[in-house]
Amino acid sequence: MTAATNRAAPGRTPRPGRLLLTISASPSAVRDGLVQLRDFLRAAHLSADACGTAEIVLAEALNNVAEHAYPADKPGRIQIEAGLAETQLIVDIIDEGAPLPGLRLPPRCSPQIDKPKAEMPEGGFGWFMIHSLTTSLGYWRRDERNHLHLVLDVTSQD
Known about the structure:
alpha+beta; six-stranded antiparallel β-sheet
């Protein structure tokens, strides 16, 4: 199992104010990567609300890669680049797993919750939350790699 590492992708050097991680697409490595992302955001003096929102979005996106992009018995890698630009957190997540169905983002649909408790869906909230909590969201596939681009509004603490 590969732990999260703060290292640049081949041929790239981390710039100040940026975090570059390469992690294994496994639940434990995703947790480790989220800790490093949280530390990066806190070091940038972001508000607790901004850190919490970013962590929710990134946890959903990274766990989707870990759960759906790679076979369970052969987790691949996830590259994460995060940076701050004024009042925005910009994150790119790249993996070599299976493409999203139809080569497009799932729609921003809220799961049906007007059902009896026993009939409530177990999942389906993740992409709705990602769409709702980001200001910009993009997906493309190039050279057998998935690219997810997320932008979140964040506010620095004084």
